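ESCALATION

Customer reports they have been waiting on this structure for their group meeting. Please prioritize. Original submission:
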Amino acid sequence: MSVSAQVHLNSAFARGLLARRPDVIAVTIGARIFVVGDMIPSWVMRHEIQHVRQYLRYGLFGFLARYAWYMISAGYSRNPLEHDAEEAE
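Update from on-call: job pushed to the front of the queue and completed.
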């Protein structure tokens, strides 16, 4: 499935949200990808585009509810939404 997204480089939103996670450089909400710096590596773009596909599949609230539940119950390393996005890298 081909998808498109708006990419926001040097995003103050991303810097604020990810301030305690220096290992994470982007966050996706809906079809918008917010990036901490002034570039996004291609593998990160593929990862974030997979999250856009997940938003399209589950809807905004469906995705956020699933993501939150997986983070609380399983943690990042066992979050199936992250595993799916990692396979797209």
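Sent to customer with the following note: The chain has one domain: 6-88.
Escalation resolved.
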